[in-house]
């Protein structure tokens, strides 16, 4: 059984659109602080109910109204990636509003995406869960949610893939996936959008070795004392005043690592954050 689309699946659509816009827009990439914060922000979906001189108000599906300020750094885009302006906003229009992460739902808008006139979130269904089977011959895969409910998802040439996958061929058992489709009868689902990737786990501990030439570092975990080696690449993000790259990591440093288990004892570091010593 599928269900009406909820925020996580709407977010998958909006974030996929934002990511596509960001990849093709220098202006967006340079606005509003680091692009990573924008891509990870929580989008607000709603209908415009009022437009002021330098602010506008949207009403969410639950009836909550939120007012967003705008400034010279706010960017406006259509679903077709056309650049718009504040004056293009209209009351009654569905929009997705993104502020930088950490500002909550009432910060200054950094990106406003106007959705098609016929957009209606009640038309969509969505499902999320772990991939438990992939059947390329049938152009299908199966996901299982936390309640153990299984959904068979069918893909075709119009299905859009996002995240760590670009096609059904990239999908693997164990990945987490979110699926969006137009409402359809039956227990199956015809996917319009699939966003999938390997789950990320957190590890805290002390660095024991750094191998810059191999692009790795080894961590002795605080919880079990196990030594784990992590690989870093150009997508790894570093956090901390003195930690900007692998070269800044030193033996004895305490860090928090967000990583993906790639199997066979291999871990890909997504985030490395320096921690103060107690």
What does this structure look like?
With 278 residues, the chain is mainly β. It has 3 domains: 3-119, OB fold (Dihydrolipoamide Acetyltransferase, E2P) (Beta Barrel); 123-197, Beta Barrel (OB fold (Dihydrolipoamide Acetyltransferase, E2P)); 200-275, Beta Barrel (OB fold (Dihydrolipoamide Acetyltransferase, E2P)). It has helices at 7-24, 26-30, 35-39; strands at 3-4, 44-51, 55-59, 65-69, 75-78, 94-98, 111-114, 124-135, 140-144, 150-154, 160-163, 176-182, 189-190, 193-197, 200-211, 216-221, 227-231, 237-239, 254-263, 266-275. Strands 1, 8, 9, 10, 11, 12, 13 and 14 form an 8-stranded mixed β-sheet that branches. Strands 4-3-2-6-7-5 form a 6-stranded mixed β-sheet, with helices on one face.
Note poorly predicted spans: 1-11, 15-40
Largest sheet, in brief, is:
8 strands, mixed
- Count of alpha/pi helices: 3
Helix content: 10-25%
User: What is the name of the CATH superfamily of the largest domain?
Assistant: Copper binding periplasmic protein CusF
Tally of DSSP β-strands:
20
Write down the CATH topology of the largest domain: OB fold (Dihydrolipoamide Acetyltransferase, E2P)
Q: Based on CA inertia axes, which overall geometry fits?
A: globular
Structural class: mainly beta
CA-atom Rg in angstroms: 21 Å
**CATH-derived architecture of the largest domain:** Beta Barrel
């Amino acid at each position: 059984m599928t269900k009406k689309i909820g925020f996580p699946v709407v977010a998958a659509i909006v974030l996929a659109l934002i990511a596509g816009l960001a990849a093709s827009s220098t202006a967006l990439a340079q606005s509003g602080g680091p692009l990573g914060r924008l891509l990870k922000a929580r989008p607000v979906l709603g209908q415009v109910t009022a437009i002021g001189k330098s602010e506008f108000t949207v009403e969410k599906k639950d009836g909550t109204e939120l007012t967003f300020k705008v400034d010279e750094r706010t960017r406006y885009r259509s679903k077709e990636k056309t650049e718009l302006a504040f004056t293009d906003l209209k009351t009654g229009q569905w929009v997705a509003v993104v502020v930088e992460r950490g500002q909550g739902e009432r910060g200054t808008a950094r990106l406003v995406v106007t959705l098609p006139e016929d957009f209606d979130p009640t038309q969509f269904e969505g499902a999320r869960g772990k991939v438990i089977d992939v059947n390329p011959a049938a152009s299908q895969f199966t996901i299982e949610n936390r309640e153990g409910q299984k959904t068979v998802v069918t893909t075709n040439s119009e299905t859009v893939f996002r995240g760590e996958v670009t096609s059904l061929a990239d999908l693997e058992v164990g990945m987490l996936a979110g699926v969006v489709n137009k409402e359809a009868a039956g227990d199956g689902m015809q996917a319009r959008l699939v966003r999938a990737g390997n789950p990320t786990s957190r590890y805290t501990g002390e660095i024991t070795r750094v191998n810059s030439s191999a692009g790795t570092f080894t961590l002795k975990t605080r919880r079990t004392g196990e030594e784990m080696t992590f690989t870093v690449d150009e997508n790894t993000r570093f956090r901390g005043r003195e930690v900007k790259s692998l070269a800044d990591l030193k033996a004895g440093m305490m860090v928090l690592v967000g990583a993906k288990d790639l199997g066979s004892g291999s871990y890909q570091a997504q985030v490395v954050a320096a921690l103060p010593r107690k």
